[in-house]
Structure prediction request, 489 residues.
Amino acid sequence: MTRFVRWTALAAASALLAAGCSAGSSDDGRSGLSWGRCKATAEGPAPSSDWQCATLKVPLDWSEPDGETIGLGLIRAKARGDDRVGSLLFNFGGPGASGVSMMPSYAPTVSSLRERYDLVSWDPRGVGASEGVRCRGDKEIQAAESLDVSPDTPAEEKAYFEDAAGFGEGCRKNAGKLMAHVSTADSARDMDRIRQVLGDARLNYFGISYGTELGGTYAHLFPKKVGRMTLDAVVDPGADAVGHAENQARGFQRALNGYLASTGQDPAEGTRKIADLLRRIDARPLPVGTPGRKLTQTLAVTGIILPLYSRDSWPTLTSALDAAERGDGSELLALADRYNERDPSGRYGTTTHSQRVISCLDDRQRPTMAGTKPLLHRFEKISPVFGAFLGWDTAGWCHDWPVPGQHDTPEVSAPGAAPVLVVGNTGDPATPYEGARRMADELGKGVGVMLTWRGEGHGAYGSGSDCVDSTVNAYLLDGTVPKDGKVCS
Prediction:
């Protein structure tokens, strides 16, 4: 089972590169790490020689700092200019997104920042090169695609929750004791160790999507160590499990309405048409031209969600929906496969596996089927296309999870911290705009500084607004804090 809405920078994920460490290491005397050339992996070629990789040892359990350790994979490219500020650490979201893989492909978006910063990212614990978690095999993942994740019958409900429990058990078997030590707070403490070994007195940080929750958590734990911190595509720190699902139902329905209006359709009528298509697919999955595979309702919704992350992808959605109306599910399936990190050979990525072990360790709420069912009408009213799927997801995602969660909502208050630039996009589907205002407020007066972009897509920086980009660049490069409440249109 795949969580339908991922808090990650999917635009950055579209051109994944994979990197590890190879021989030929060096130490520049500044980081205390042994940096070497990054090497190719099964997922892709090595990045250029501009990039270096290293492994940092950190405690498995931060309450036992002298105990067992795990390795964190890091990647960096050194600043080009002479007037260096320090390191700028990036997290691209998820949770579960690989910074080691994404940083080289995202670097062109932040090329101006490299004039004064070393660009640095890492695979958070439980991800990729940092003790990455895999909870089931490729054949099991493909088999689960046939499940109805908005079940309509008792038999479908039983299969849905059995699959959820089986996924958690697979995580327990494969992750072992690591499963209790991959929380956002654990990663925030890792970030402070990274800051230390990079030689920075304060943490300069760029967090995207879930990376904003991670940044807020860091600011709460280490307020005096906050340097220049930007949070873009902001997760609402005040929303619980059901609240997040409702927020995302609203956000994706807003994005769908915007897409439909851009094609000249009435949003209400267009939404009804898509909901009818999904009901037909639920009754009879569409052929896709590939033996052994069909477009199920679950895969169709996943395929619709992906292009809503970026306005540039809206024409792709039009083509895929038109094909599905003609009885051809291949284009929506291709979009779903991209979202699910499935390559042509049938091999799946593990972002969702890492995402689940991290988010279920964070969240101690465990909505039940009995508690969720009465909410489904409310979800469907918010979004006839996405509501039911997100409603059921609240009950299935951490069902019968082997490890208890840690909190209802994250604590991000950071009294005494330096100003944190919080960037909200009014058309963001995955992390709706209201969450940015909540983050700025909860960081505290004089800390959270709000920048609004009236745009579309997941995230604002690098999305076509010179106003947003110049404001963020001035803050990160020169320390110029904009007026709280600035709006870019």
In short: The chain is about 40% helix and 15% strand. The CA atoms of residues 109 and 462 lie 6 Å apart.
